[in-house]
Design brief:
single chain, 478 residues, alpha+beta, Lipocalin, Rossmann fold, 3 domains, eight-stranded mixed sheet, 12 helices, 19 strands
Length: 478
């Protein structure tokens, strides 16, 4: 669900060249690309430091984060004494300190936001290329066009891509709604572009697809940081209204497919009174947001090897912090109260001043007041209040190994809410061996997402296409 601000947030950093006393030959010995993995519990990110010698005797560095789609982030300054290397990342208040072990290995640590993690680097002999075999390549057997549409409620333009099958049409269409966190139209994350893969498959199989950049992302206007799920639902409504006027689209055949938080957004739109033809919930929530986060924390922590006592204590502290955020509408005051409560909890552990300072830095890095408006809505919202009002057919899918939105409890809640509102047109499926991104996986931990070459299960793609086509009857759109 909501993505915390992680160690390698994509920011542009400043570069400072600094000459040292080593000879150009000594400095040249460390030039090239060095890759390592930052392991922060449930999340593992590959990072690549690119060291280059300029002006004959100055080392400069850039950073690639292939799992986040970031390249050439400028770092600096770089200091090197022939054995130890220090790479600063000033704008991130971070730095890397390493020791040269041999010509292929640097052992070191990455420090940021009061957190220090092991980061050993190995020299790359060739450029790192992520293998994503499902990512479609042109030419495509369908039309693909950039489109813009207006959200009149806040007067912003949103930008996206509409793919339409070959042939006369009109065609059914599905609007793809991204999960939480500001994302582009391909829902690009961890080196994968799931919405690009989904759009390609569905369009090849006779279903038009509209995918769009979240507000404030890519070519879309607006400010994502100020938006709740309900606000983002107005963007999806604008996409729905835009498609109703396209003659290539069956007017009564406009459906929604939302991933993760996008499933909640789809339910909000479906409950708005618009004549949505169908909804596909891809790992969408059926239970209260706070319960989802607590379950997510517990499942990921267990899979990461943490003990039950430690997990219970963490969830208990989180609940106290969440209560403040839910009850205090002023984000600045809420942040102050959150810090006070957390300091009190840390005092019970009798930590040193240095340990307390580090823990506070981690809290403020991962629980940013800018996200409180979104978080307050999510924590307090029961998706059932929307699902009960949805009248169209619903297909709810979850991976059996989903550790972010647990399959059993959320599918059951969605089914119950729909039926309690009188809608029996619901199909729920728990799919074996799949994670939150619908990849075949081993553990389901987010740490696997970028390592897995598969972007989206082919079986699920077929399930989606077959289900949409199965809704049509002769002489009738849906």
């Amino acid at each position: 669900m909501k993505k915390s601000i992680f160690l390698l947030s994509v920011l542009i950093l400043y570069s400072v060249n600094q000459a040292m006393s080593q000879t150009p030959a000594e400095k040249k010995s460390v030039t090239g690309s060095w890759m390592g993995k930052i392991n922060a519990g449930a999340v593992t990110l590959r990072v690549v430091f690119n060291l280059l010698l300029v002006d004959k005797d100055s080392l400069v560095a850039t950073l690639d984060s292939p799992d986040q789609g970031a390249k050439n982030i400028k770092l600096g300054p770089v200091t090197f004494d022939g054995k130890a290397i220090k790479i600063s990342a000033g704008a991130l208040l971070a730095e890397y300190n390493g020791t040269i072990k041999n010509d292929t290995l640097i052992e070191g640590k990455w420090t940021q936001a009061g957190n220090t993690l092991d980061l050993n680097l190995t020299r790359l002999r060739a450029a790192l290329i992520l293998n994503r075999p499902q990512e479609p390549k042109p030419p495509f057997p369908y039309s693909s066009e950039d489109v813009t549409f207006l959200n009149p409620k806040i007067n912003i333009k949103l930008a996206g891509t509409l793919t339409v099958p070959e042939g006369e049409g009109p065609f059914p269409v599905v609007i793809l709604i991204t999960g939480s966190g500001a994302q582009n139209r391909n829902e690009e994350l961890m080196g994968h572009k799931p919405f690009l893969v989904i759009a390609d498959y569905l369009t090849r199989n006779g279903i038009a697809v509209l995918r769009y950049d979240d507000r404030g992302v890519g070519k879309s206007e607006g400010n994502y940081s100020e938006a709740t799920s309900a606000d983002l639902a107005t963007d999806a409504e604008a996409a729905f209204d835009f498609l109703k006027n396209d003659k290539r689209i069956k007017g009564a055949s406009v459906g929604l497919a939302g991933h993760s938080e996008g499933g909640l957004i789809a339910a909000i739109v479906g409950a708005s009174g618009r004549k949505v033809a169908f909804i596909i919930s891809l790992a969408g929530p059926g239970i209260n947001g706070e319960e989802i986060i607590n379950t997510q924390n517990r499942e990921i922590s267990i899979a990461s090897g943490l003990g039950s006592k430690e997990i219970d204590e963490a969830i208990s502290v989180n609940s106290k912090l969440f209560d403040i955020i839910k009850k205090e509408p002023d984000n600045k005051l809420a942040a102050e109260k959150v810090n006070e409560i957390y300091k009190t909890e840390l005092a019970k552990k009798k930590l040193s001043a240095e340990e307390t300072e580090q823990a506070m830095k981690q809290l403020n890095a991962n629980l940013n007041p800018l996200a409180f408006t979104w978080l307050r809505f999510f924590l307090s919202t029961d998706p059932a209040m929307y699902w009960k009002k949805v009248r169209c057919p619903v297909l709810a899918l979850n991976g059996e190994k989903d550790l972010q939105v647990a399959a059993e409890v959320n599918l059951r809640a969605i089914d119950k809410a729909l039926r309690s509102g009188g809608n029996n047109q619901v199909t729920t499926m728990k799919l074996p061996g799949l994670n939150h991104l619908f990849q075949h996986c081993t553990t389901g931990l987010p740490a696997e997402y970028g390592e897995i070459e598969e972007t989206f299960s082919p079986e699920v793609l077929k399930i989606m296409a077959d289900w949409i086509h199965g809704l049509q009857t002769p002489g009738q759109a849906f």
